[in-house]
Amino acid sequence: MKFLTLYDGVIKEAAKRCKKYCEYSRMINKYLEETLDKDKQQDWKVMFVTLLLPSLFGEKEKLFFPLPKQQIPLSPVILSQDDEWNISVDKEVLFPKTICTFSAAFQAWFAAFWIFSIEFPKGLYNTCQFLEKVLLGGKGKVPNIVSKWGNRLLHLDL
Predict the structure, then answer these.
(1) Alpha helices for the chain (secondary structure H)
(2) Distances in whole angstroms, Cα of residue 107 to Cα of each of 12, 34, 48, 124, 145
(3) Which of 32, 108, 111, 145 has the fewest CB atoms within 10 Å distance of its CB?
(4) Residue-wise pLDDT tens digits, 92-109
(5) What phi, psi does 81 have (nearest 5°)?
């Protein structure tokens, strides 16, 4: 995923803006290297960058994930419990089985906006535009991840 190639660049840009991101990045990298295998490390790096991107655009990363005590919004959100993920749209959980990685959950979250013709949330609009145009190659065409998750939704046994 192109996300991982941007990891270092996003971290450097965040470090320019705020020292705490630089410290946090070092702590995260050390923890990841000590405790997780390579695949899990990559997944956590994708999550870390995903949470950093909105702050670089002056937006709210909390719109990706509702906190446990918050009401789940109508717009697509990523739900997490332990190491399992799912997507909620219109307060309904999309997949009967949980998604195993954050990377896959993030792809499904992004695809939900396209599949259900939902506007990007105001508090994440610039971040989503960046993801769509720069990382996912969605310049007026349907990004590959949207096709992948759309097909997965079509073939669910509900």
Answers:
(1) 2-17, 19-35, 38-56, 102-115, 125-130, 144-154
(2) 24, 27, 15, 15, 6
(3) 32
(4) 888 888 888 888 888 888
(5) -150, 115
